[in-house]
From TrEMBL:
<dbReference type="InterPro" id="IPR036388">
    <property type="entry name" value="WH-like_DNA-bd_sf"/>
</dbReference>
<dbReference type="GO" id="GO:0006281">
    <property type="term" value="P:DNA repair"/>
</dbReference>
<dbReference type="GO" id="GO:0016787">
    <property type="term" value="F:hydrolase activity"/>
</dbReference>
<keyword id="KW-0378">Hydrolase</keyword>
<feature type="binding site">
    <location>
        <position position="232"/>
    </location>
    <ligand>
        <name>ATP</name>
    </ligand>
</feature>
<feature type="binding site">
    <location>
        <position position="76"/>
    </location>
    <ligand>
        <name>ATP</name>
    </ligand>
</feature>
<feature type="region of interest" description="Disordered">
    <location>
        <begin position="1"/>
        <end position="24"/>
    </location>
</feature>
<feature type="binding site">
    <location>
        <position position="329"/>
    </location>
    <ligand>
        <name>DNA</name>
    </ligand>
</feature>
<feature type="compositionally biased region" description="Gly residues">
    <location>
        <begin position="350"/>
        <end position="363"/>
    </location>
</feature>
<dbReference type="Pfam" id="PF05491">
    <property type="entry name" value="WHD_RuvB"/>
</dbReference>
<dbReference type="Pfam" id="PF17864">
    <property type="entry name" value="AAA_lid_4"/>
</dbReference>
<comment type="similarity">
    <text>Belongs to the RuvB family.</text>
</comment>
<keyword id="KW-0227">DNA damage</keyword>
<feature type="region of interest" description="Head domain (RuvB-H)">
    <location>
        <begin position="269"/>
        <end position="363"/>
    </location>
</feature>
<feature type="region of interest" description="Small ATPAse domain (RuvB-S)">
    <location>
        <begin position="196"/>
        <end position="266"/>
    </location>
</feature>
<feature type="region of interest" description="Disordered">
    <location>
        <begin position="341"/>
        <end position="363"/>
    </location>
</feature>
<comment type="function">
    <text>The RuvA-RuvB-RuvC complex processes Holliday junction (HJ) DNA during genetic recombination and DNA repair, while the RuvA-RuvB complex plays an important role in the rescue of blocked DNA replication forks via replication fork reversal (RFR). RuvA specifically binds to HJ cruciform DNA, conferring on it an open structure. The RuvB hexamer acts as an ATP-dependent pump, pulling dsDNA into and through the RuvAB complex. RuvB forms 2 homohexamers on either side of HJ DNA bound by 1 or 2 RuvA tetramers; 4 subunits per hexamer contact DNA at a time.</text>
</comment>
């Protein structure tokens, strides 16, 4: 079965992957309504908020544009929201585009040449921009100028085009892929961390008020505990629990209702969904906890290699349920405990099954 990375579902399935951090069309529409408009309303990321607040206040006092801002972190943590808040705090319009949409220098030149003075340009997934466009961006960020090439071959001429001062907000999920010359041109860099459960509870309470949903403290805590440290997932789970409460109960959300609703959607108490448990189950039951190669594990769960590696593994590793080793994937004691299984007797090298099993299932 092939898994759809964008939704986390197999072809033919209608259900979205509730714990997927990427935003689909429905998420984007809801996020627009729930998104805070001011920095003071933004929940979490206290260090980034404090630092960014200083940058923006100083720019307003100078009467100029804010420095270019780079925001890095996993999907769903609020990078787009912060970019819109920057524009709002600076009383400036915002232009939104993405790295994959800029494949030629001409694409970027067209956007830059139409910017207004002080405008905020939000460039999502900036690390996926083409190299020619990247090199054009260096000059635009530093000198507010681009050279437009007219003609081809020996007769080509570079025409300098002056740009009004603007603020670039770049967002990336993989900051390590940004070339140093581009990264160094950002005046402020903020790294977005995963949220603590208490912070997610505040996000859920705020969203519940905006959605006109009655949610008590324990109900919000139950949803927060299954949200994988990500506000986007917390809001998505809140909407699904709201649906369950509306149909199966009196519309109010408490711990029992939230737990029953998320059990229906196969999101367990730790935030693992069907795909996560399938990967862990195969690793534990078929391969004794590993080590096992990624390709072998992918075949065992009936998923593409990329799906296991990019969709399931990051959260399992972060939760301390799975480890990547040179010999393959290995389950941790916490994984055995989470699925209620007893690990096999440890081999002489400290792994289940000893050296013979390592050889069978190595990478």
């Amino acid at each position: 079965m092939n898994w759809d990375d964008s939704t986390g579902t197999a072809p033919g399935e209608d259900a979205e992957r509730l714990v997927g951090a990427e935003a689909d069309g429905d998420d984007q529409a809801v996020e627009a309504a729930l998104r805070p408009k001011e920095l003071g309303e933004f929940v979490g990321q206290s260090k980034v908020r404090e630092q960014l607040d200083l940058v923006l206040k100083a720019a307003r006092q100078r009467g100029g544009t804010a420095d270019h801002v780079l925001l890095s972190g996993a999907p769903g943590l609020g990078k787009t929201t912060l970019s819109m808040i920057i524009a709002s705090e600076m009383s400036a319009p915002i232009r939104i585009t993405s790295g994959p949409a800029i494949q030629h220098a001409g694409d970027l030149a067209a956007i830059l040449s139409s910017l207004q003075e002080g405008e905020v340009l939000f460039l999502d997934e900036i690390h996926r921009m083409s190299r020619p466009a990247e090199e054009m961006l260096y000059m635009a960020m530093e000198d507010f100028r681009v050279d437009v090439i007219v003609g081809k071959g020996p007769g080509a001429t570079a025409i300098p085009l002056e740009l009004p001062p603007f603020t670039l907000v770049g967002a990336t999920t993989r900051a390590g892929l940004l070339p140093p010359p581009l990264r160094d041109r950002f005046g402020f860099t903020g790294h977005m961390e995963f949220y603590e459960p208490e912070e997610l509870e505040r996000v859920i309470h705020r969203s519940a008020r905006l959605l006109d949903v009655d949610t008590d403290e324990e109900g919000a805590a139950e949803i927060a505990g299954r949200s994988r440290g990500t506000p986007r997932i917390a809001n998505r789970l809140l909407r699904r629990v709201r649906d369950y409460a509306q149909v199966k109960a009196d519309g109010a959300i408490n711990r029992e209702i939230a737990g029953r609703a998320l059990d229906v959607y196969e999101v367990d108490a730790r935030g693992l969904d069907r795909l996560d448990r399938s990967v862990l189950g195969a690793l534990l039951k078929l391969f004794g906890g590993g080590p096992v190669g990624l390709s072998t594990l992918s075949v065992a769960v009936g998923e593409e290699r990329e799906t296991v590696e990019e969709v399931a593994e990051p959260f399992l590793v972060r939760e301390g349920l799975l480890a990547r080793t040179p010999r393959g994937r290995v389950a941790t004691p916490a994984a055995w405990a989470h699925l209620g299984l007893t690990p096999p007797q440890q081999g002489p090298h400290g792994t289940p099954g000893g050296p013979g099993q390592q050889g069978l299932f190595g990478a």
